[in-house]
Amino acid sequence: GARGATAGGGGEMWIGSDDDAAGSFEGGSAPPIMTGTLLPALPASEGTTIEIAIDRIGLKDAEVYIDPYIDVSVVRPGGIQVGTKQATPGATQRRPQYINFDVSVHLQTTLEDIEPGSAVIFEFVHYKPKKKKNSVRCWCFIERADLKPGQQVLELYKKPVKTEAIANPKKLNLHTVKPLYLHVDVRRDSG
C-alpha cells in the first residue's frame, strides 16, 4: 500500500474506520519490507537526543494486517505537531498476536525542545485493499515526563487519535482488554 499523511486538523488525527477486515497474506508470510521515512539522529550538540526502539506491537489479529507500519510524531498540547512525522519500515516478523518492527526512531526534536504536556504519538497503520488506502487501527503515546531511558509497554487506544485527551486519559478508550501493548525502549543521549 501507499503511505499517506494521517494528520487532521483541530487537534485530532483521524483516518477512516476499520469496519471491514483486512486480508491476510498467502501462507501467512510477512508483507514486503517497506523502506519507511526514518531520519538520522540529531547532532548531540543540539541537546538531549531521543531514540525510541520499537520492538513489537501486540494485536489479537496480528496476522490480518497488510503492509503494517507505525507513524511516530511529537505533538504539543493542542495537537500541534513538532518536528517531522516519521514512518517505520514494514514489519520484520509476525508471530501469533505480535507484529515485530525491530527498528529505532530518532525524534527530530531534542528533549529540551519538547514542552511539558507534549507527547510522542505512535499510530499503528495498515493498508485496506477494499478502500485502497492506509488506515490507523490503534494508537498510543508516551508523555514527555515519561521519556526516561528504559523499556516501556504502552497501552493501545481506539482511534481516532485524540491528542487533546492525553492530559485526561479517562477520555480515551482502550483498543483491547487483553494484555497487548506496544513494546518500546527509550534511549537518551546528552552528547
Brief synopsis:
With 191 residues, the chain is an all-beta fold. It is built from no helices and twelve strands. The protein has strands at residues 12-13, 49-58, 66-75, 81-87, 93-95, 98-106, 119-128, 133-143, 150-155, 157-158, 161-162, 181-189.
SSE diagram, text form:
Blueprint (H helix, E strand, L loop, with lengths): L11 E2 L35 E10 L7 E10 L5 E7 L5 E3 L2 E9 L12 E10 L4 E11 L6 E6 L1 E2 L2 E2 L18 E9 L2
Antiparallel strand pairs: 1-11, 2-6, 2-12, 3-4, 3-7, 5-6, 7-8, 8-10, 9-12
Report what the structure shows.
Helix content is 0%, strand content 42%. With 191 residues, it is mainly β. It has strands spanning 12-13, 49-58, 66-75, 81-87, 93-95, 98-106, 119-128, 133-143, 150-155, 157-158, 161-162, 181-189.
The strand order across the widest sheet is 5-6-2-12-9
- Uncertain parts: 1-33
Gap between N and C termini: 38 Å
Amount of beta strand:
35-45%
Bin the helical content: under 10%
Secondary-structure-based class equals mainly beta
What's the alpha carbon Rg, rounded to whole Å?
A: 16 Å
Number of strands: 12
Give the overall shape.
Answer: globular
String of helices and strands: EEEEEEEEEEEE
Mean pLDDT: 83
Number of helices: 0
* Largest sheet report: 5 strands, antiparallel
